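TA notes, week 10

Several of you asked for a full example with nothing omitted. So below is the full record: structure tokens for the whole chain, then the designed sequence directly under it. When grading your own attempts, check the secondary structure regions first.
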């Protein structure tokens, strides 16, 4: 298993954990109502912005 070359911040770690829970909810429909209960348009927009920033950070680690 590859390791990250630098320590991941608590914010990034939380985002990854949140994204993982959304993935599980999509794979197992009975969890969708539990996971999606607190998600509104603003929260979804923030998750998208944070995910884009995380992607840029992750792809930058490979250089």
């Amino acid at each position: 298993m590859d390791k990250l070359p630098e320590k991941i911040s608590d914010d990034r770690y939380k985002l990854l954990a949140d994204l993982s829970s959304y993935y599980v909810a999509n794979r197992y429909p009975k969890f969708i109502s539990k996971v999606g209960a607190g998600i509104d348009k603003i929260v979804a927009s923030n998750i998208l912005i944070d995910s884009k920033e995380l992607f840029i950070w992750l792809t930058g680690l490979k250089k």
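Residues 41-61 form the longest helix (21 residues). Use that as a sanity check on your answer.
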